[in-house]
Amino acid sequence: MNLRHLEMRLERLAGFERPTARLEQYQTPAPVAARLLHHAAMQGAIEGRAVSDLGCGTGFLACGAALLGASPVTGLEIDPAAIEIARRNAETLGVSVEFLVADVRDPGVDWGSLACDTVVMNPPFGAQKAHADRPFIDRALELAGEVYGIFNEGSTPFVAAYTEGRAEIEEVIRCAFPMKRTFAHHRKDRVDITVEVIHLRRI
């Protein structure tokens, strides 16, 4: 499946109905999700691989991975309402994804059973809570050898330092992230920010 076709399929999916600022529930734009997934697929990290989406929200990355032939695919999300939308999105695309309500910081989860080949994720940028992305990075590197994450522009030096001795940055792709008005404190209907899709490989 080419990049544009994948993007068009993801554009059919539903976003958050009542997004929560505390959880930084910004919808992953279809073009960004498609670019991450297509790139990972070209590197052999999706098709036929076990893939997990941490903080999956409404399931764009998880559903897209399944569409590209990943199996099994698991989406983990702390918000039950988002999980329900994600399940409907999987039905829309006709793909099989196991969605679980779980907090990446919860030591009570049987994380060993969720080990996979590849993690894809759009973790919080830390706008509401500093360092909110760190538990996602930690858990991703625990679960998988290959990690593809979406981070705020300028995050690469931090990610490199934070994962030193655990992972190496294989590649960084910068792309536009169109952010629509979502919360009351937003003043514009849309703001285009730049994000970095960072590919980490566990050492």
From TrEMBL:
It comes from the Archaea. GO terms for biological process: methylation. This is Methyltransferase-like protein 5. The keyword Methyltransferase applies. GO terms for molecular function: nucleic acid binding; S-adenosylmethionine-dependent methyltransferase activity. Signal peptide: none annotated. InterPro entries: DNA_methylase_N6_adenine_CS, rRNA_MeTrfase/Polyamine_Synth, SAM-dependent_MTases_sf, Small_mtfrase_dom. The keyword NADP does not apply. Pfam families: MTS. Keywords: Methyltransferase, Transferase. Belongs to the methyltransferase superfamily. PrmA family. The lineage of its organism: Archaea, Methanobacteriati, Methanobacteriota, Stenosarchaea group, Methanomicrobia. Residues 42-134 form the Methyltransferase small domain.
